[in-house]
């Protein structure tokens, strides 16, 4: 699938400025390309800083591409994880079927960078978004866009707002939900009603079945796995119930976040008449927290993100305050984990070292022994989705384990 490589490459010619956290003032007024030509190092950046690890990204791309290929399923990684066209381009180059997104605006960002196939993992009921998609499909016959529907009311709303729109019918997937889950028709029977409404609509076309199992569990305990297994079996039943109603002989059947993609393969892969598409997004960056504990690929994936924060105060013998906080690092799926002291005082932290709290701009590091004022601590992080949205530009290091890693790229985000 396509992305406009020239538009993505042009990001290197954007001018750097004070809006780009952690870059030194000497970089302001220069392009990203010019800054990188000077072979900057991690020590040339200010703290706090979030970085990516190039070697880990390359590893994770290969792991997921090989895994999905061997399973005979497609991958449309969720682009909202990074909102970074440079990374989307690499995922597409590695064989991804398309890019998944969550909102019309996110889809518009992807389209601005030439993404040729977009799966919107949501119902598209925003009138502005509906008109935009219709016009874009009328303008470019090669552009593929799919949205979800989960109620008869949604079908009627979309039909009404697309009535005068140009272009082909909008392809939609009927979304099946689960008890106490997120969106989605709550029963197979209700989902069948939605599919019939799509079949009778003037502006929509039934392309398949969609769902999200990740809303039904948050761990790998038996209760969560049983609930998710039952839900995926119901998705398979819905796919079979709708046989003959799909616009194409091969219907799309999509599920699979980054927590339970193995269960999706066990329950859905190989179903007759189904093109199974996973939507895992966090795999590319992975983490040292939530996904490290729940992903079935945790043994092969590596965390590609780290926080680097400097000790600015030692008000108590075993307490150091670091200069990163909630404005800089993710905290919703677990606090940062102290890993090493970097730079001239390089070394391992005591195994008892722990981050006990984050304020807006401070990290409370409780560690036996000295963490001297001025020392830089590398932090393992949890949940890439809430890490990227705090940074407009993220430096990429050649190797985060090196004594003073080289900055080899700058990744632009669009949040």
UniProtKB/TrEMBL annotation:
Location of the D-serine dehydratase-like domain: 304-398
Gene3D superfamilies in the cross-refs: Alanine racemase, D-serine dehydratase-like domain
Domain of life, source organism: Bacteria
Protein name per its UniProtKB record: Amino acid deaminase
């Amino acid at each position: 699938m396509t992305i406009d490589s020239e538009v993505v490459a042009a990001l290197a010619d954007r001018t750097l400025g004070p809006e780009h956290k952690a870059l030194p003032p000497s970089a302001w007024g220069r392009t990203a390309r010019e800054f990188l030509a000077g072979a900057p190092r991690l020590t040339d950046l200010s703290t706090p800083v979030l970085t990516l690890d190039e070697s880990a990204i390359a590893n994770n791309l290969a792991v997921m591409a090989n895994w999905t290929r061997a399973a005979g399923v497609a991958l449309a990684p969720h682009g909202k994880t990074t909102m970074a066209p440079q990374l989307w381009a690499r995922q597409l180059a590695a064989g991804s079927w398309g890019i998944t997104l969550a909102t019309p605006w996110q889809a518009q960002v992807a389209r601005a960078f030439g993404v040729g196939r977009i799966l919107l993992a949501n119902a598209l009921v925003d009138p502005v978004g509906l008109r935009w998609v219709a016009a874009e499909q009328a303008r470019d016959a090669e552009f593929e866009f799919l949205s979800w529907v989960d109620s008869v009311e949604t079908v009627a709303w979309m039909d009404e707002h697309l009535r005068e729109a140009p272009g082909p019918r909008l392809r939609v997937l009927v979304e099946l939900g689960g008890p106490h889950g997120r969106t989605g028709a709550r029963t197979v029977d209700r989902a069948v009603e939605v599919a019939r409404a799509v079949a009778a609509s003037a502006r929509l076309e039934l392309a398949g079945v969609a769902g999200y199992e990740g809303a039904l569990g948050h761990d790998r305990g038996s209760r969560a796995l049983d609930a998710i297994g039952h839900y995926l079996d119901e998705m398979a039943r819905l796919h079979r119930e709708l046989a003959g109603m799909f616009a194409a002989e091969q219907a799309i059947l999509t599920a699979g976040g980054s927590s339970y993609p193995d269960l999706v393969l066990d329950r859905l892969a190989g179903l007759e008449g189904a093109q199974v598409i996973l939507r895992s997004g966090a795999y590319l960056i992975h983490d040292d927290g939530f996904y490290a504990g729940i992903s079935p690929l945790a043994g092969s994936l590596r965390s590609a993100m780290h926080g680097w924060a400097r000790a600015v105060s030692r008000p108590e013998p075993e307490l150091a305050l670091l200069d990163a906080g909630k404005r800089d690092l993710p905290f919703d799926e677990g606090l940062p984990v102290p890993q090493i002291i970097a730079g001239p005082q390089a070394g391992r932290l005591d195994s008892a070292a722990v981050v006990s709290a984050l304020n807006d701009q401070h990290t409370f590091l409780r560690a036996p022994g000295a963490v001297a004022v001025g020392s830089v601590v590398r932090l393992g992080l949890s949940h890439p989705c809430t890490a990227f949205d705090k940074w407009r530009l993220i430096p990429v290091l050649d190797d985060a384990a090196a004594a003073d890693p080289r900055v080899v790229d700058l990744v632009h985000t669009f949040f």
